[in-house]
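Quick one, probably user error.
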């Protein structure tokens, strides 16, 4: 099966809309987080070479590397969440031990989405202060997407 991370946006939305167990909310939350992290990378890329300070440039380069790594991992979690939920569906026929293990595995994915989203948000204050001033609204959008990914994943952990 083709990985969801390799779907076009339209393909992903079409399959998300079907009466199928996956992808679902966890996968969508991870994708939302990846989009937010991608926006952080974009703003950081536009902010490079705008300062005469090597310290600022070094920090911006670090933000690019970190946000890119987070984006890529969140994109991997789109598929890992779907796989984890399929595990829950399959475990419904099994023992309570199997069911509990499947639920723990799925919650582990959601916890990682929460952690990465939180860490990505922490990259933004420096960009607001020292980054490209014309892209503050893109940072705000990134933060909102990362909050949505965090809160959505938190809801899944609580359920």
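Nope, works fine. Designed sequence:
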């Amino acid at each position: 099966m083709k990985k969801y991370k390799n779907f076009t946006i339209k393909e992903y939305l079409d399959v998300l809309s079907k009466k199928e167990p996956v992808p679902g909310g966890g996968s969508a939350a991870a994708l939302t987080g990846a989009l937010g992290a991608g926006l952080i990378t974009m703003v950081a890329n536009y902010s490079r070479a705008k300062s005469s300070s090597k310290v600022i440039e070094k920090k911006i380069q670090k933000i690019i590397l970190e946000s890119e790594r987070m984006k890529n991992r969140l994109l991997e979690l789109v598929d890992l969440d779907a796989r984890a939920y399929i595990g829950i569906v399959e475990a419904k026929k099994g023992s309570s031990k199997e069911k509990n293990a499947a639920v723990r595995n799925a919650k582990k994915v959601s916890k990682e989405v929460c952690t990465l989203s939180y860490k990505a948000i922490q990259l933004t204050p420096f960009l607001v202060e020292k980054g490209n001033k014309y892209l503050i609204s893109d940072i705000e959008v990134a933060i909102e997407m990362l909050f949505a990914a965090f809160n959505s994943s938190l809801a899944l952990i609580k359920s």
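The chain is about 80% helix and 0% strand.
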